[in-house]
């Protein structure tokens, strides 16, 4: 008996009275789960290969398919649960680090779901967004301390470069390489249509997408892949990636097999060589070093573009943010521990970092205390799931939010969390041409636009309910939030009262 | 503008539809010595077979003339054209004026002067509805039929009446059936299939003389019969044009705008000869698709438009007792061949061009081959190996596909 | 006039279009009922090569060779759509001989079949397009 035998996690439930043997499931599953048995005219399935991505389920024309969790089980044990046991088997077989993708799926508290939003009654009447103007536009960047005037009394423009967003949501960094060309095109086109920004991630910018530069944030990460002058010039802002919520403290590794064709060209590294992003930037060991990079990038782009510094939410995030706010950066992006990734060591993804809600609240409070809140804008990311999360984040002090997983879901991602296999059946996290073409950007971009247009309506409705008519007036307005089921400490950090108080 | 069309069949309908694309109001007069609403000539055999009826045989709906504003003069024959005064003369003595005239007079069965033919009482040709009606009268379960000619018309006639007679013998001078469109191997397959019925062939022989109900063959044998059908061939009806000095050869000669050599007179259909692009020669292509396209082209030009028809090739789709055969072009050049059980595919190519093909049984997508011949597509520009295997658009360039599948064609 | 247009860049070769076409033309209300144990004979067909695939159905040509060649008048143009009159067709296959795209095919019920843009069936608009998961075929004015 093979000692590391593991019963498959899912079963393919095929309703034979519905199956018409069209073999669509067979053609669409890159994991080769389904096959057709000519002799008996029936469909076979090998559930051991199934990653539960729902591609076959979604395309089966007769709804003959569903994927169910296998009820095969180990003897019940609250401590040694199934996953824990299986991981031991896996590692004792392979000797390797466990890899997984997307955000931390474990049962840590989701603070968004423990906060409730206020609404006006009688006094301070609510506002109907369909009838009255409602501003969702925001500007990201350093805000001047005071109005300056020239000797003749005229207003002097002392504004540093700003990013103008039609709504307080942006697509966060996902590199070309970790996601497909068509996914990038969808994000880029949607950003332009929506008047917001998407982010190149650390893989450089494909030459086809320079045309979307006005809606692009170009990232500079520790590997410095694809970074050159035109690249920096191409974007509307530059983001220095110090860390990522899904894997704080470690770098990235895109295996050589994925460094092919345009990807190698865009990253400026030879085909087939591994793209390794070191854990730290080798030239940054202090805030002063960071300041140097911030200003080198500003110098390189004639001080025309705001610089963002992206960090993972970790234990002493408030102090770190305070340092960054003094480094000359215009915007700080904080990525919570639920943030997605194309590939991360499971242990790190599931055990390192802190929730974005707490990080955001403490950073906002700290910067206010220190009187430097206007030095920077704050962008919160790491599992923003809907418009209510956006409103809560802003009330906690964010200027805007970053979404990634939400955007991928709109593009068809079913969160099967097997991006690392490179066989994404939805054409998103893959570079195999026959899979990449499953994401038609004409459809993808439309879905992203739909999603955020809907969110924008909801944001306006929620704000109107509170009697607030601009994002600016909601920002950091923690009186609009109440906690439920939270202890004193949590309420204290979030800076909100308990419901009923 | 006064348009006059002589003939009321395929080419005539093509011309009416062509004229009406350009000119909605000009007066159109259609004259034919057949007295029926325009009908599909090839269906006369299906009519005898019981697979269609008079109503369904109508080549265009009952309101066709009305909708297209046509005056019809049916059951009258045109006996002459007075080109100087631009009129046509009818057999009832009346005269019809025209500004533009088209002859779509088709062809007539040709009967060689067999010895003793006069002694045969029950004899027919197979060309018109009237022919079919009179033949039908003569049929009966105990009748023996002799058909001279194993060409398209003879065999279609045989198929049409097989169920209604005792037996049929088909005699042809050629050593294979359908000699004008098939080669030996394909003809053999079709022959074998037809022979499963009550039809027998005597090939490589002709009738040397008749004596009442007996035909004596050139090979020495004889055939007794009750009904004789002569289907040895047809001759284009060119006399109206040749009589007034218009250029004719085997058929009426036209240019690619379907103009005859006489000012104001056009011709289309079986009465003309065409330039066959598959072999580069002029020949009579007595085929319905050809007749329609010539007629339409003539109509457009008669009404002041400009349209060329320079894509004529022989092409035939025929079926006998469920076996389908499609052929097009000329059987010359190198051959690609695939043989199956009772099926056959032969492609003929030369000079980087597909020249012709023969498909027996599996005929799907044959039109892709036809278009290669008709449009003279350079084989070097497509995946020839793939297209030999199966006719497909995959064999063409991406750009071609984009044009055809992504644009209006 | 709206037609079905194909963009091979996005075709996945999943063949859903073929099945949706076959289903729409059965007239049944349930696909499983209609197509179980049936070898389908759709009017739109996928051509598949090593790294490319695309759907082919009638182009509804402005100069339809099938209509011009039809020996019985069974094919006609109605508001730009090329239609088959099953009663008139005698399955001579002259249209198959004529169509440069291979869009007309034999059928089991005596007459030829071809895409009629679903105007005669319950679907009302092309079922292949409605079911294409990737926008590889569209129904629009061009
Ligand atoms: C039995 C049979 C089967 C066939 N099967 C096929 C087939 O399967 N596929 C195919 O492609 N083709 C087939 N054909 C050939 C096809 O029918 C012809 O190509 C087509 O009908 C030609 O059309 P047309 O208008 O040129 O001439 P015709 O159909 O011959 O019509 C000419 C008309 O003009 C009339 N006319 C002639 N002279 C005068 C005059 N002086 N005054 C008044 N009227 C006149 C004639 O009476 C006739 O009505 C078949 C033909 C026959 C007979
Ligand atoms: S896609 Fe559905 S109907 Fe088709 S073969 Fe698979 S299970 Fe059967
Ligand atoms: S349904 Fe769409 S993607 Fe699938 S085979 Fe047909 S055209 Fe291609
Ligand atoms: S069937 Fe063929 S020839 Fe006829 S309209 Fe359609 S594509 Fe054109
Ligand atoms: S098969 Fe039918 S539709 Fe096609 S040409 Fe013949 S009669 Fe016309």
Quaternary class: heterotrimer
CATH topology of the largest domain in chain C: Alpha-Beta Plaits
CATH homologous superfamily identity of the largest domain in chain A: Aldolase class I
The largest β sheet of chain A comes out as:
8 strands, parallel
| Major pleated sheet of chain C | 2 strands, antiparallel
Bound compounds, please?
A: flavin-adenine dinucleotide, iron/sulfur cluster
Task: Explain what this protein looks like in three dimensions.
The complex is a heterotrimer of chains A (501), B (409) and C (142). By secondary structure, chain A is an alpha/beta fold. Chain A folds into two domains: 10-96, Alpha-Beta Plaits (2-Layer Sandwich); 138-472, TIM Barrel. Helices cover 30% and strands 16% of the residues of chain A. Chain A contains 16 helices and 23 strands. In chain A, β8 and β9 form a beta hairpin. In chain A, α8 (317-325) packs across α10. The longest helix of chain A has 26 residues, at 441-466. The relative contact order of chain A is 0.15. In chain B, the strands form seven sheets. Chain B has a five-stranded parallel sheet with strand order 3-2-1-7-18. Chain B has helices spanning 10-22, 44-49, 64-67, 129-138, 152-161, 184-194, 239-242, 288-302, 366-374, 384-389, 398-406; strands spanning 2-6, 27-32, 70-74, 78-82, 87-90, 95-97, 100-103, 107-109, 123-124, 144-148, 167-172, 199-203, 207-211, 214-217, 222-224, 227-230, 234-236, 265-267, 274-276, 281-283, 315-320, 323-329, 334-339, 344-350, 353-360. Helix content of chain B is 24%, strand content 28%. The two termini of chain B are 31 Å apart. The model of chain B has no long low-confidence stretch (mean pLDDT 96). Chain B folds into three domains: 2-108 and 235-302, FAD/NAD(P)-binding domain; 117-232, FAD/NAD(P)-binding domain, CATH 3.50.50; 322-404, FAD/NAD-linked reductase, C-terminal dimerisation domain (Enolase-like, domain 1). In chain B, α1 runs parallel beside α8 (288-302). Chain B has 409 residues and is an alpha/beta fold. Chain B is globular. In chain B, a hairpin with a 2-residue loop joins β21 (315-320) and β22. Chain B is built from eleven helices and 25 strands. By secondary structure, chain C is of the alpha+beta class. Chain C folds into two domains: 1-57 and 119-142, Alpha-Beta Plaits, CATH 3.30.70; 60-114, 2-Layer Sandwich (Alpha-Beta Plaits). Chain C has helices at residues 16-24, 31-35, 65-69, 94-98, 127-131, and strands at residues 2-6, 45-48, 53-56, 75-78, 81-84, 137-141. Chain C has a two-stranded antiparallel sheet. Chain C has a two-stranded antiparallel ribbon with strand order 2-3. Classes of the chains: A alpha/beta (501), B alpha/beta (409), C alpha+beta (142). The B-C interface holds B 14, 40, 42-43, 46, 51-52, 56-61, 288-289, 292-293, 296, 315-319, 324, 326, 328, 363-368, 370-371, 391-394, 398, 401-402, 404-409 and C 3, 5-8, 47-49, 52, 54, 56, 59, 61-62, 65-66, 68-69, 71-73, 87-88, 90-102, 104-106, 142. One iron/sulfur cluster binds next to α1 of chain A. The site of one iron/sulfur cluster has 13 residues of chain A, from α1.
